[in-house]
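[Q] Does anyone have a clean structure-token version of this?
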Amino acid sequence: MEISGIITAIVIGTIIGVLGRLALPGRQHTGFLWTVAVGIAAALIGTAIAAGLGVADTGGIDWIELAIQIALAAGGVAAVERLKSRH
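[A] Here you go.
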């Protein structure tokens, strides 16, 4: 992976993490770095799932892939929020 791929993953992961956070109701106390980390993981895992389903590379915007990534990010942010509230 080249530096441009890493930068792209960080940017896309940040956007996915923020969208996942916005999909959750109420206020979250998860920090920005956790949101970005969850977003990057959700983007990578969501792309792998979409590729497995055969919907990762379509003409135009890959709406199904994006929906999978946002759903994973929302779940990830909620999981981090629960883990942080225990301590």
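[Q] Thanks! Anything notable?
[A] The chain has a mean pLDDT of 84.
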